[in-house]
Design brief:
mainly alpha; two-stranded antiparallel ribbon; elongated
C-alpha cells in the first residue's frame, strides 16, 4: 500500500498490517457457547462462527485503537512523534472504515481523545 503526505513529507510503501491482522483472526467458541455450538445444525454453526469472528475483529480493533491512544498520550510534546501518531490515527480510521463500514465510528479514533 502506498501512502503519500507522511509527516516527513515523503511517500512510502508499506504492508497494510491492520487488514492482514483482521483478515487472519481466528475466533474461539468456548464455555456455554461451545455447548450451544455443538447442538446447532450446520447453518447455526456457521452463524455462530461468523458472529464470533466479527466480535473478535471488533475486540482487536478496539485494542489497536487503545494502544495508539496510549502511545500518543505518552509522546509528550515532541511534535514529530505526535505527527506520526496523528498519521496513525488516520490510517487506523481509514482501514477500520473500509473493514467495518457503518460500524466503524465506534472503533475509530477521534482527534479529541
Amino acid at each position: 500500500m502506498q501512502y503519500s503526505n507522511l509527516p516527513n513529507g515523503q511517500t512510502q510503501w508499506f504492508i497494510n498490517y491492520l487488514r492482514i491482522c483482521l483478515d487472519t483472526i481466528e475466533p474461539t467458541i468456548s464455555g456455554e457457547d461451545r455447548d450451544r455450538y455443538q447442538a446447532e445444525d450446520q447453518d447455526g454453526r456457521d452463524r455462530m462462527r461468523t458472529e464470533a469472528w466479527q466480535n473478535a475483529c471488533r475486540d482487536w480493533a478496539r485494542q489497536h485503537r487503545n494502544a495508539i491512544l496510549s502511545a500518543y498520550a505518552s509522546a509528550g510534546n515532541d511534535e514529530s512523534v505526535r505527527a506520526k501518531y496523528a498519521w496513525l490515527f488516520r490510517y487506523h480510521n481509514e482501514e477500520i472504515g473500509r473493514f467495518f463500514g457503518e460500524e466503524a465510528q465506534a472503533l475509530s479514533i477521534s482527534q479529541d481523545e
